[in-house]
Amino acid sequence: MTMHVTQADKMGFLTESNTAYRRSVSLTRKPVQPRRALAAVRKLIADKDDTEQVFEIMNALAGRSIEWGYRRLLDYPIGGQQAYERNELSEYLENHDNLRELPEGSVGKAYLDFVERQNFSAEGLAMESRKARDTEIEAAHPHAWYARRLRDIHDIWHVLTGYQADALGEGCLVAFSLPQTRSKGFGVIAAAVAIQFARARTGHPCARSIWQAWRDGRKAHWLPALDYKALFEMPLEEARRMLNIPEPRLYNSVPTHLRNAYLGAKTM
């Protein structure tokens, strides 16, 4: 039997029967997998540094959030420019020598101080994201590029919001990220961390600080569309005012030594 191959097939045009089409649909409409997410949440609660589980949760609960975010990106002139240029932020963020040339007090210099203090790296985060099952984050597709963008700006948002890399700070940041991205995974992680801190009974507003972060995320300007290279040259405090990001008052009121308090308590 001879299979007829059309010119369209040779050129790689998409049809509903081929792999490329199915892959593009899966990037847009990921099925929700609550059991997979719950298993990953339990592992993450037990070890807050198990970043692979964050991406497991995000993959399991992504739904159509990436499609929504990419479409919204195109509604902003600067966002449309970012989508058109499709630069990879991780490459820019990995160049610490260039970041050291930025002014003191700038967003970029604060980012560099943060990642070097924590021994973080953009490439390290990228490597963790590739470990998730069935991930397509490295695909040659606009939605995959947008997913990489969200991954790469996570630590920049730590700097912009003032939330540190402790358990409470991570819980606050994912709560802030929920209204910004509409990714249910962020909501599940934030809720799980809030519950654990409530159980820990620290006597401080840990769970309420996560709730405040969610409200602040709703009120802030939409951050995924920003030109981050231009933002990095701005003074940090000026950038926060421009983006309507307030001081994390409740989070800051929690003593530093209690911001990992739930890790000693019984987990989910």
Can you describe what's shown?
- It is built from 18 helices and no strands.
- By secondary structure, the chain is mostly helical.
- Helix 5 (65-75) packs across helix 6, helix 5 crosses helix 11 (142-152) and helix 13 runs antiparallel to helix 14 (184-200).
- It starts with 6 loop residues before the first helix and ends in a 15-residue tail after the last helix.
- Mean pLDDT is 87; it is low at 7-25 and 264-268.
Distance between the termini: 58 Å
Fraction of residues in helix: 55-70%
Mean pLDDT: 87
Low-confidence stretches: 7-25, 264-268
Give the number of DSSP strands.
0
Summing up helix and strand content along with how strands pair, one would put the structural category as mainly alpha
* Tally of separate helices: 18
The largest sheet, given as strand count, sense and whether it forms a barrel, is: none
The percentage of residues in β strands lies in: under 5%
SSE succession: HHHHHHHHHHHHHHHHHH
What radius of gyration results from the CA coordinates?
A: 20 Å
Shape: globular
